[in-house]
Amino acid sequence: MQTVKNKIVFISGASSGIGKACAESFAQAGAKIILCARNTKKIQEIANALTAQYQTEVLAIPLDVQEKHAVTNAIDSLPAEWQAIDILVNNAGLSLGLEKLQQGDIADWDAMIDTNIKGLLYLTRKIVPQMIENKLNGHVINIGSIAGIHAYPGGAVYCATKSAVKVLSDGLRMDVVDTPIRVTNIQPGMVETNFSVIRFHGDQQKAAAVYDGIQPLTAEDIADIVLYAASAPAHVQICEVTVTPVHQATGRVIYKEKK
């Protein structure tokens, strides 16, 4: 295995859930972390906590990945010592609503497409050329979803965005095949974070019901896999990992114990 110590890791959507857990895993391993999210106060608090606990360098930058020009400006404005990004973790993503397609909220569709697809594209387009120019053994790790493999009722648009993440990961892997850059797509099943709270527009009761009767994955479970993929020997490319709780087979084939 190779070390990620002193490597620069850029993590989007780092203010909570999988992004936050990835930040902690990489910080513990000695990497230098760039955290980005819309919540400026939260990512700065996380940065301060990681620096204090692990004595590593952490840079927090406020960024909404949906904004193309904001992404460009944020990357261009990085201090010189932070510009050679070794690992990009495209984690920013969300799901909104669970209505049938013909009844869906177009504003929800726009938010999912702009974050899950366009945000990933904007960061990848800006950072990967720098990896190539700097002759880095770069690594792009995309956080996809089992929803990108199997659609389910009420989730057509979200599933489509995560299917796009899978295809974009495969396409990028082909496009950088003549470089030392690796591309990994992580496809989790049920992970208990604020994902369902956001999906149900803040309805805590509905969100909690999603995980009743099953032990879901944790954000830390996914962060462990991300770190493992990044730590694999330089000649080893982990292309794709699909991970679910034991009692989940697909997005909607789930066994829940009755109370």
TrEMBL record:
<dbReference type="GO" id="GO:0016616">
    <property type="term" value="F:oxidoreductase activity, acting on the CH-OH group of donors, NAD or NADP as acceptor"/>
</dbReference>
<dbReference type="InterPro" id="IPR036291">
    <property type="entry name" value="NAD(P)-bd_dom_sf"/>
</dbReference>
<dbReference type="Pfam" id="PF00106">
    <property type="entry name" value="adh_short"/>
</dbReference>
<dbReference type="InterPro" id="IPR002347">
    <property type="entry name" value="SDR_fam"/>
</dbReference>
<protein>
    <submittedName>
        <fullName>NAD(P)-dependent oxidoreductase</fullName>
    </submittedName>
</protein>
<dbReference type="InterPro" id="IPR020904">
    <property type="entry name" value="Sc_DH/Rdtase_CS"/>
</dbReference>
<keyword id="KW-0560">Oxidoreductase</keyword>
<comment type="similarity">
    <text>Belongs to the short-chain dehydrogenases/reductases (SDR) family.</text>
</comment>
